[in-house]
Specification:
This protein is α+β, with helices and mostly antiparallel strands. The protein contains 8 helices and 9 strands. The protein has a 5-stranded mixed beta sheet with strand order 5-4-6-3-7. Strands 1-8-2-9 form a 4-stranded antiparallel beta sheet. It is globular, with a radius of gyration of 18 Å.
């Protein structure tokens, strides 16, 4: 079964879930990770986090798009607004396509999303990428948040493999070895890279620790921003 970062978000956002990310799964290992990119409409004339912050403060109010309420795209926008003390209104969309359309058209100001989706519009000049949570070959040259004085912005969307709890350890280790072997295959690595995913061989323990870390991180952020769903 494939699990991704939203599992950790759901545990904090929703009061009633049919599963517990920490208690109900044995994690086999990472498949890969993909960073988040902060893109802005060109009319803001911002190329860095600082110039973007100045432009939005000059407007006094602004908007940020997301691919849906309760997504990482949404929560990173909330985090950015809080950290930079910006008055930004969240505008949730049903997916990336309509959000991109309004971002390009200037109906919304900024948006966090994956590099693959944003790259064609950044490369064509329709959008400006001001920062990324980690370097990505999909958008070479875009500076990281850390390099711009925001070291807390290292979040990535991760993909991993998990089995039901109480899977025999021998099976967990066998599947981890098979997964890592596949990820080290140049053809698999190339295919993942084309999709904006950095293949990440590793141990089952590393993914288990990542789940615990994400639960704590996103839970704390959700508490601070007051975002909650039933």
């Amino acid at each position: 079964m494939i699990r991704a970062l939203p599992a950790a978000l759901s545990a904090s956002l929703y009061k009633k879930l049919p599963y517990n990310p920490e208690k109900d799964f044995d994690y086999i290992g990472f498949i890969g990770t993909s960073p988040y990119v902060l893109a802005v409409q060109p009319a803001l004339k911002a190329a860095t986090v600082d110039t973007l912050t100045d432009a939005l403060k000059a407007r006094r109010t602004g908007t940020f798009a997301s691919v849906g309420a309760g997504t990482v795209s949404h929560l990173l926008g909330e985090m950015f607004a809080k950290d930079k003390k910006l008055d930004l209104t969240h505008v949730p969309y049903r997916g990336a396509a309509p959000a991109y359309t309004d971002l390009i058209g200037g109906q919304v100001d900024i948006m966090f999303d994956n590099p693959v989706g944003l790259a064609p519009f950044v490369q064509s000049g329709k959008l400006v990428a001001v920062a990324t949570t980690s370097p990505t070959p999909i958008l070479p040259g875009v500076p990281t948040f850390a390099s711009q004085g925001m070291p807390a912005y290292t979040q990535v969307l991760w993909y991993g493999l998990a089995f039901p709890k109480q899977t025999p350890d021998a099976i967990v280790q066998t599947m981890n070895a098979a997964l890592n072997a596949a990820l080290r295959d140049p053809a698999v690595a190339s295919d993942l890279a084309a999709k904006g995913v950095d293949g990440r061989p590793g141990t089952s323990e590393a993914l288990t620790q990542a789940v615990s870390h994400d639960l704590a991180f996103w839970g704390d952020l959700i508490t601070k921003t007051g975002v909650q769903f039933d």
